[in-house]
Amino acid sequence: MLEFHLGEHLQQIQEILFGTGGNRWSGWDRATTTTGSSLGIQKLVSGAMLTNSNNLFTNVSTTILREFVHMDHHGNMAVATVGAGFTTGTAETTWDSKVSSGSSSTAVMEAFEDLRDNVNSTTAHGNSATPTSNMFIWMQSGRIVMEGSYNVVTNNYDHNGGTTVKSIAANVGDIVIQPHKDAAGTVSGSKSAIFSLSPGGSHPGHLSIMYNGSTGNMDLWTKESAVFLNSETAGKGISVVNRGTINMYGEKSTGIYNSTPSKMNVQFVEKGFTFDATTNTATKDYKPINIYGDSSMGIYWDQGTSTNGSIEGNFAVNIGAAGKGNQNFTTKATSAVTGGAETNGVALSNYDVNSSDAATTNKDYIRGSFGILSNGPTNLTSHQIKIFDKTEGMLGTPKC
Predict the structure, then answer these.
(1) Are 243 and 114 in contact (CB under 8 A)?
(2) CB 263 within 8 Å of CB 238
């Protein structure tokens, strides 16, 4: 069971956030600030939130995990009401369409409609297979940068048992998890995640969804980290969807880390994808997670002694790219938040996020990474695993 605690953390917000009614929230445009809240910078308990802001969040602790948004699902909202609110919000005169490639009404509404119509419960989930009646949704279209160790962007708890309800954490903008260097020269950057599902107690409950839209860009630079982290209640219905770009650079990291025997459907494909097993052809393209780190995995699942979990769907992973192996981290030189480098510390240059590699030749080769490592029922309709040239000791689908 994951437990999240917050101490002090540093954040800067320069843009604006909207509720689903489209009204600008006052008091959110502020300079550098600290908080001792245990419930994240943002909190959603009922209904919906659409956020379009520039954020730089620094975790100065190396022992305490901290959230950007605390999602505590107690109530939800009619789908039509969510859609109307998002439409109104993106049309507001103070909406900034330049924060990210997803800061547009088109990107927001296309993701909303995809989630509404196409990401549904399956037979294996044990829930209704029809589109949802209500939503509990957090969607971000701006830019979130979290630096340091023990960070998580979304942490979602299920306290609602409605089987026709969708509980959604969605990204259509930019998310970056990166190392942090303090004034004393100490660098921290490990054990973080982008999406997290924590045990909430409702089973089978609603369908929990972690979603990266077609305009979404997510870069994970920290070591021993995960993009999608699941520790939900055993047997819980979960969907993990990638329509956009995911890059994972740090060593010993995982795309999907499934720590419980949940019933998981994965779709790392374009919207409208179907696969014909007879002809081995697909109607749309795969949208892989890109691994550039050593000793990393696309999917990791150790189900233990339980027998009520499963993974199904369509999955894709690239290990490296043509002529591209390990990548070092350099702090972005410009930031809308700081006016300088995108850090609240000291800028890093060419920092090695695969430092455990003891090789003396071909230092930039990716070593010891896997496409899928699972000992539970992994019944994918299709999967695509590409292993590129700057790699050594790779395996596609070993069994643990």
Answers:
(1) yes
(2) yes
> Which are the contacts of 258, defined by CB distance < 8 A and separation ≥ 6?
230, 264, 299, 300, 301, 309, 311
pLDDT 10s digits, 128-160: 545 678 899 999 999 999 999 999 999 988 776
Cα gap 40→69, rounded to integer Å:
5
List, for residues 14-43, the tens digit of each pLDDT value: 333 443 334 445 554 444 455 555 557 888
Quick one: tokens of 223? 């070591």
Beta bridge partners of residue 211, listed in sequence order:
170, 241
Nearest to 176 by CA among 289, 342, 10, 13: 342
- Cβ contact 98:53 at 8 Å: no
What does pTM read for this prediction?
0.91
CB atoms within 10 A of CB 36: 8
Q: How many CB atoms lie within 10 A of CB 340?
A: 11
**Contact between residue 43 and residue 70 where contact means Cβ atoms under 8 Å apart:** yes
- Predicted pLDDT of residue 28: 47
Instruction: Kindly report, residue by residue over 305-327, the tens digit of the pLDDT.
Output: 777 788 999 999 999 999 999 99
Compute the distance between CA of residue 278 and CA of residue 280 in angstroms, rounded to an integer: 6
